[in-house]
């Protein structure tokens, strides 16, 4: 598979730009990033100029997708040291791939200081910070971040602009806080936007189960399994490589 990219935002000299063109656009990007050719072209670019942050990020990225987090992070750390623009990307990788939530929060907090309205991988920084807090069992902090995000978008743009995954995790925070009726209402809003969202249906069932309402719980579980088997789950690019927090894999029978 051939992967297309654009150059990162690091200010480059004409010579550095030509190195990226030669070793990325005309080199590594012509191959799968799982191939030896990808590694060879990236290494040749680094040998030509080891101060280009984007080369280190491109060298590290495939390792994360293969589960080789330590090697991936070594390269990504070099990219961040050369260009702080990669800080939020490193925070994302720590949150979703490496699952080092305390370190991810530290990077996101530093990113927030640089750009309070910053985004990475389609979501604002507080979204990922909330995921970190959920995974650290700090449910109130997660709820506050997600509730603020959802209500702000609703007020500024309207309810239809809220991302269903942001609603989903708001429901998860409510579920963890024991606010089962509120969570059901939030999952219903999520399902209005994404009717086959198996994970939202599953946790809606868990809420009913916690309320002692067995019949609607089982109905939700059955529908969730049907939708899961059809391939409907969290709609995020990297779920093919890494499960997101609270994502349900029925094949592993996570109940």
In short:
With 255 residues, the chain is mainly alpha-helical.
Explain how this protein is built.
The chain has 255 residues and is mainly alpha-helical. Helix content is 64%, strand content 2%. The protein has twelve helices and two strands, in the order ααααααββαααααα. It has helices spanning 14-25, 36-48, 53-65, 69-82, 87-98, 101-114, 125-135, 139-156, 164-176, 180-193, 198-210, 214-229, and strands at residues 119-120, 123-124. It has a two-stranded antiparallel ribbon. Strand 1 (119-120) and strand 2 (123-124) form a beta hairpin. Helix 4 runs antiparallel to helix 5 (87-98) and helix 9 (164-176) runs antiparallel to helix 10. The protein is elongated. The protein starts with 13 loop residues before the first helix and ends in a 26-residue tail after the last helix.
Descriptive tags:
disordered N terminus; mainly alpha; 12 helices; two-stranded antiparallel ribbon; 64% helix; 255 residues; 2 strands
User: Share of helix among residues?
Assistant: 55-70%
The N- and C-terminal alpha carbons lie at a distance of 36 Å
Number of E-type strands: 2
What best-fitting shape do the alpha-carbon axes yield? Answer: elongated
Rounded to the nearest angstrom, the radius of gyration is 21 Å
- Approximate strand percentage: under 5%
Low-confidence stretches: 1-7
Main beta sheet, described?
2 strands, antiparallel
Sheet with the most strands: spatial strand order: 1-2
Give the mean pLDDT.
93
- SS content category: mainly alpha
Pattern of helices and strands: HHHHHHEEHHHHHH
- How many separate helices? 12
